[in-house]
Amino acid sequence: MKINIINEFKQVNIQIGKSIFGMNKNNILTKYPSPLQMGIIEILIKHKNEDISQNDLKKEMCISKAAISEALNSMEKKNLIKKIQSKNDSRKNIIVLEDSAIQTYEEIKKDMLTFNNKLLKNISEEEIDIFMNVLNKIKNNIKKEVD
Asked: How many distinct structural domains can be found in the chain?
């Protein structure tokens, strides 16, 4: 049996997006960062003791210079980050998280954990293990195609 797995993932992604938007419709556009911005925040938290530049983020996230620039400018306007000129290279800006970004990230993480638990309701540990195994195989197949 052949299924269109891409279409299935797309439908699930749309449903999750609608659910998340519905959970936060009163403040999602003003308070919550976009998924791209959340990814940036996660990377900056993960590398909190390192100097991370715009170019470093671009490379780690595999996105265009324009996309990362737009996201960072928006985040700067929302006071989620600040850009500081590198001491080692005056051409580079180091991206630093503001306390508000960390607080927002923690709030969203808590909301997502609650939502995650709702998604897994009535699904056994065995079913989750099988799903994760298949999902990891799909991710590995994708990685092999890209590399």
From this structure: 1
105: left (phi over 0), alpha (psi -120 to 50) or beta: alpha
Neighbour-count burial of 115, counting CB atoms closer than 10 A to its CB (0-12 exposed, 13-18 middle, 19+ buried): middle
- Here the tokens at position 18 are 């609608």
Asked whether residue 6 is domain-assigned, the answer is: no
Question: Is 55 contained in some domain?
Answer: yes
Look at 97 and 33; give whichever has higher pLDDT.
Answer: 97
Q: Report the predicted TM-score, pTM, of the whole model to 2 decimal places.
A: 0.68
In terms of residue numbers, what domain contains 53? 32-146
Tens of pLDDT, residues 81-105:
999 998 888 889 999 999 989 998 8
Mean per-residue pLDDT, 63-76: 94
Task: Give domain status of residue 8, yes or no.
Answer: no
**Residue 75: HSE in the Cβ half-sphere, 13 Å Cα cutoff:** 31
Name the nearest CA neighbour of 20 among 4, 33, 37, 7.
33
Whether residue 13 is contained in a domain is answered as: no
CATH number for position 98: 1.10.10.10
CB 39 within 8 A of CB 47: no
